[in-house]
Each structure stands twice: as structure tokens, then as C-alpha cells.
Amino acid sequence: MPGIAWLAVLFVVPFYVVLSVAFGTVDPIFRNPVPIWNPAQWYTGTFGQVIDRIFGRGAFLGPPFVRTFGYVAAASALCILISYPVAYYVAKYAGRRKGLLLVLLIAPFWISYIMRMLAWVNLLEGDGLVNRSLTSLHLVSHPVDWLGGNALTVILGLVYGYIPYMILPLFAGLDRIDSNLLEASRDLGASRLRTFIRVTLPMSKQAILAGMVIVSLPMFGDYFTNNLLSGAPRTSMIGNLIDDSVGTPGQGTNAAVLVLILMIILIVPMLYYVYSTLRATKERVA
Fold first, then answer.
1. Cα-Cα-Cα-Cα dihedral sign, residues 174, 175, 179, 181
2. Are residues 263 and 139 in the same domain?
């Protein structure tokens, strides 16, 4: 009961407020959102208008949605490619240095996310260290405009900001794999690569899914990384649309509708993760 009460306070109540704002009205004088608490009186016109702006003819909100999926997919893939070898090494080969390496991996959490992104702004400026290094090595003829709406900068910023959240669940999953299973595979004649593909990788599937959920879901709502590293409309994401709507008079209901649409989109991978976890648990018990 305490857990249910805590969940109701921190999730159900705020979610109902978002619903009431999304299906509410706007104050005609001050242009502030006016929530409607009675579901029988909810106004669905705003929801239909936003849907039309995303999927309808001449939809101008569609590109940020498509762009968000592309950025999140690319950033999540890079997180896996980078995190898996790091987590595998720490779990299987770090030995007595495992604790030290884990501390170093957790260290970025001790620094504000804003400060870490601002550090990248200084590095990527026209006269920053990155451009100075590239020009001094004659890799580019003139400084690259990394902060002027470059999609690659936004993707790498997302990777840098969220990759620790991928490494830790991967490490936890790989560290729990019984080394006797790997030795048994080798004793049966499997090579290191085949052992990895047939034993290690399948047994770390749940850790990969957990890392993907932890990393990709916040990326969908991220707006601060884009604002700092780009700030250009051509790289705007769903989070930027919500942030702009919240700060624009008369657009509060649109922001609430966008939040609901984002939640509907994200509930699909969440349900798959829950289903996959339950199935894996049943298989272990059986």
C-alpha cells in the first residue's frame, strides 16, 4: 500500500493534470491553459489539431518527430557499440581494478549535465580545441561549424550525455554470467567468438534491453542537449517542440498534447521490455 500510494502521488496525479490540460481550454485574456478536471467536459479539438499538424497534409510538426527517431536510434546504437566492450572488459578482465574502473565510470554523474554540455560548447566553438586541432593537422581547410545546426553534433552530444546509463546495466548483466558456462562452452570445442555469440550475447540480452530503455526513453524527451549544441530549427526534436510550446503564450494545451503523444509512443518499448523480462524470468524458473 505505501508503494501504491507513492506511485499515485508521483505519477497518477501529475498524469491526470496533463490530461486535464491537454483536453482543456485556454484563457482568452492571459493565454494561460485552463485545465478541465471533469472528463465528461473534455475538449478534444486541440488533440485533433496537433495530430493533424504531425500526420496531416502539410504537417510541419512531422519532421521533428522523424528526426527524433533517427537521432535516438543512431545515438542508442553508438551507446551499445561503445558500452558493450567497456562493460565486458570491466566485468570479465578488470580483476582487482574493477572497483576503480566502476568509480571512474560513475564519475560523470558527479558533474552537472549542464556543465558537461557547456564544456563541449567550448571545445566545438569556431576557435575551440577541436577546430584548432583539425586545422593544424590540415584535416579541414577552415573551422567546422559544429554548433550551427549540425546533426552529428547533436547525436554525439546525446551519446556523451547518456552513455554511462548504458554501461552500468550492461556491466551488471555481464558480471552475473557464470564463468563456468563460458568454460563449458570452450571445453565443448567452441571458439572464443562462438562462445560469445552463442552464450554471452544471449545471456546479456536483458541487460541490453534494460540499457536501451534507460538510455533511449530520456533521449526522446531531451531538449537541452539540442538547445546547447545546435539551437537550429533543422535539428529540433520532440522535446524542443514541447519546450517551445510551454514557453509560448496560448500553447500550453499543445504542449500537454505533445507530452501525451510522446508517452503513447514510448509505452510500446516499455511494454515490450516488461514482456521480455517476464518471459525471461519464467524461463529461468522453468
1. negative
2. yes
The beta strand positions in the chain, using DSSP E, are 25-26, 33-34
- For residue 102, which amino acid is it? L
Residue 281: is its pLDDT beyond 80? no
Mean pLDDT, to the nearest integer, of 228-241? 90
pLDDT of 58 over the 90 cut: no
**Cα–Cα distances in Å, from 11 out to 14, 223, 246?**
6, 21, 20
Residues of the domain holding 111: 60-285
Is the pLDDT at 286 greater than 70, yes or no?
no
Instruction: Indicate which CATH number applies to the domain containing 246.
Output: 1.10.3720.10
Query: Taking the model in full, what pTM does it have?
Result: 0.89
Alpha-carbon distance values, 40 to 15, 24, 141, 206, 259 (Å):
17, 11, 64, 42, 21
Rounded to 5 degrees, φ, ψ at 214 are -65, -35
- Beta-strand pair 33-34/25-26: antiparallel
